[in-house]
Design a protein that fits this description.
Strand content: under 5%
Shape: globular
Radius of gyration: 21 Å
Number of strands: 0
Oligomer: single chain
Structural class: mainly alpha
Helix content: over 70%
Distance between the termini: 78 Å
Length: about 250
């Protein structure tokens, strides 16, 4: 009964969130985020239909959609970085490349950990654990970056960040410390964390509010990026020069 209530509540909140996103045109400002919500809504409907119409189809449908949602959800982190660092294109480019590398490594690690005795029901949690850990680290790093450089961000982006941070944090805790095979308190907490995220998103994304521009005269994150890039280029040039001398000697 509780599981059904969580299920229907999630679907209702997803529809409300998508309707408001279409009405206030935020759907066009955060296309990846709203595409993810649309995908999860379709997943919920497909899983609910399989559960009620033919229960034997439920597990194949569940595990067939879980991995797609997990990978697509990771793109939300990239969109958060892209929007929040729009005023710092150099730093945003470096960050996107670093995030892509880390996510690929986490995905490969999850696949390798789950490769022994491959079963979808056992492999998906291993992959999700690795990717969720990277998502949590990326969100914490972004928050630290905002605090360190006093970068302002608007209500809409703050809502996406808070909601997804809550959702990912709950997932990491459950996947790391709790078995989700039994329907106990933590199983329902694992499911209900998404409702908490949806509630935050509806509140923060009810209407459009532009992101404030960085204050003039503040620390320029792109200047920091240029210094790091210049220092790295000099270091690489020194290494190349050293190697050429060693080859000639």
């Amino acid at each position: 009964m509780l599981g059904q209530l969580i299920w229907w509540t999630s679907i209702t909140l997803e529809i409300v969130l998508l309707a408001r996103g279409f009405y206030n045109r935020l759907m066009y400002r955060y296309p990846i985020f709203y595409s993810y919500i649309t995908l999860v809504l379709l997943q919920d409907i497909a899983r609910l239909s399989a559960y009620h119409l033919k229960f034997s189809l439920y597990k194949p449908v569940y595990w067939g959609t879980e991995f797609t949602g997990l990978v697509f959800g990771s793109l939300i982190v990239f969109e958060i970085y892209k929007v929040s660092l729009a005023a710092f294109p150099g730093a945003a480019h470096m960050t996107r490349n670093a995030l892509a590398t880390v996510f690929v490594i986490a995905l490969v690690k999850g696949l390798l950990d789950a490769s022994a005795g491959w079963q979808p029901a056992s492999a998906a949690p291993e992959i999700e654990r690795a990717l969720r850990a990277v998502q949590a680290a990326a969100i914490l790093a972004l928050v630290a970056l905002f605090l360190l450089y006093s970068i302002p961000f608007g209500r809409n982006l703050r809502g996406i960040l808070l909601g997804y941070g809550l959702f990912v944090g709950e997932r990491v805790i459950c996947l790391t410390f709790v078995s989700l095979q039994t329907h106990n308190f933590w199983f329902y907490a694992y499911s209900a964390s998404y409702i908490g995220a949806l509630s935050l998103w509806i509140g923060y994304l009810w209407s459009y509010q532009p992101n404030p521009q960085p204050r003039a005269g503040g620390t320029n994150l792109d200047d920091e990026y240029q210094r790091i890039a210049t220092a790295t280029q000099r270091w690489l040039q020194g290494i190349r020069g050293y190697l050429r001398r060693e080859v000639r000697s």
